Amino acid sequence: MPAVCLSLHADFVCRRSGPCCTSGWPIHVESDRWTAWREALAAGRLSVRADKPGDDILFVVPPDLPPGAGAVLRTRASGACVFYRENEGLCAVQCGLGHPALPAACQHFPRRCLIEADRVAVSLSHFCPTVARLAFRTRLVPAAVLAPSALVRHIALEGLDAREALPPLLRPGVLADRETYRAWEAVALDTLGLDIAPESALARLSAFTEELRTWKPADGSLRERFDALVAARPDSSGGGAGPLCPLDAYDLARASVPAGLAPSRLPEGLRAADAELVAPAWPAFSRPLRQFLAAHAFGNWCAYTGRGLRTVVRSLEVALGVVRVEAARACAEARRPLDETLLLEAFRAADLLLVHLADPTVLAEKMSEVEGPSAVSLQPVAIETPGRRPA
Ligand code: SF4
Q1: Among 62, 182, 268, 360, whose Cα sits 20 to 30 Å from the Cα of 71?
Q2: What is the pLDDT of residues 107-127, one digit of tens each?
Q3: What is the position in ligand 1's atom list of the atom closest to the CA of 94?
Q4: Which of 72, 78, 91 for mutating ligand 1's site (highest number of atoms within 8 Å of CB)?
C-alpha cells in the first residue's frame, strides 16, 4: 500500500533535536526488544552512564502494560529517557544496537498516520522542532506526494486504522465517498497554498464545504456536485459554524486532555499580550501559519472520527486558534513581539496539545458539535499508539 506525505514534509530528516527523548513520556519497549536489550546490557554491548544513584534502574514494569510491551523506559528527573546521552544528544540504544532495536514509539515519532484502505497518509507533528522549522520554508506549496523511503522505511506505520471504516461523512447521517473526500482534501491544501491570510483561507474552505454539504442524492452524484463547485469555486466566506475565538479553541482542546495530563493553565493578561505583541506581527506569518494548517488538513483523523466535513474544517479552526493562544503565551513570557522563534515554539506547543495530549476521540466528539444536533454516525476505527508515547 503506498504511503503518502505532505510535500512540505517529504525531505524530513531527524536532526536529533531531542524533545522526543526528554519530554518525560512513558515509552513502552516491546517484549522482544526488551529481552535483546537486557542481553546486550549483560554482554556489555549496551551501556548507560550512571551519574547518580538510581541511574542504573533502566526499566519499570507496571501491572497495566498493554499486550506486546515488556517494560516502560525509566526517565530521569529532567524528563530525559535513561538511554538518552544528554551531553551528546544521542540515544545509547541507537548507537549500540542500531535503529531496528529502538522501541516502535521512538522509531515512529514524529509521524502521525492515517491508514486507509488504499494509502497510508503520513503526517508529522510540529512538536518536533525540526518539523516545526519546515513550516517556515517559502518555496513549496502543500500537496500530497508519494512518501520517500527515508520517511517510512524500517518503520511499522501505526495510527488511526480506517481500513475497515465507512467512508468519511459529508454531514451527520450522509456518507461521502472516499474519492470525493480525497478531492476535498486536495481543495483544502490548494486553498491553504493561496497567498492570503490563514483566516481567509479557512473562510474560503468553509464556504466551499458548506456548499458541498447541502448535496442531496436527488441532485445527482456527489462527485458531479463537487466538480461543479470546483469550477465555480466560491471564494467568499459565510455559512458554517462561524469564527472561533482562539481562547475558546484552546479551551476545547484542553478539555479533551485526559485527567493527569492537562497542560499548565494560561497566564493572566493573555488578551493584552495578543493585542500588543501578536496581532501586529501576525499577518507577516501567513505562509507558515497556512503551512501548519496544511499539515493538519492532510490525513486528518476527523474525517473518520468526526461527524462530517464541517468538523474537519472546525479542526483547522481549532488548530489556528490554539497556535494564536500559544503565540500570545510565548510572547508574554519572552516580553517581545512575535517573531519566527516564538512562532516556532507556538507551533510546537500547539501540536503538543492537539496531537499528543488531547484524546483524539474526545476532541473529535467536541468539535463535531458544529455539525448540529447529534446523529448516530461515529465510525468503527481503531487508534493504535506506537509504544506508549502519545500519538
Ligand atoms: S530509547 Fe533512545 S530514542 Fe527512545 S526515548 Fe530513549 S533515548 Fe530516545
Answers
A1: 360
A2: 999 999 999 999 999 999 999
A3: 2
A4: 91
Could you give the CA distance from residue 200 to residue 213 in angstroms, rounded to a whole number?
20
The number of beta carbons lying within 10 Å of the beta carbon of residue 56 is 12
d(CA 189, CA 192) in angstroms, rounded, equals 5
pLDDT tens profile 148-207: 999 998 788 889 999 999 999 999 999 999 999 999 999 999 999 999 999 999 999 999
User: Quick check: CB of 93 below 6 Å from ligand 1?
Assistant: yes
pTM comes to 0.91
Q: Closest Cα to atom 8, ligand 1: which residue?
A: 21
Alpha-carbon distance of 320 to 23, in angstroms, equals: 24
What length is written for the chain? 391
The one-letter amino acid code at 202 reads: L
Residue 95 CA to ligand 1 center (angstroms) comes to 11
For residue 230, report the distance from its CA to the centre of ligand 1, in Å: 46
Q: Under a CB-based contact definition with an 8 Å cutoff, are residues 27 and 88 in contact?
A: no
**Ligand 1 centroid – CA 73 distance (Å):** 8
Find the 18 Cα to ligand 1 centroid distance in Å: 9
Q: Delimit the domains of the chain by residue range.
A: 28-102, 168-379
Report whether 62 contacts 113 (CB < 8 A): no
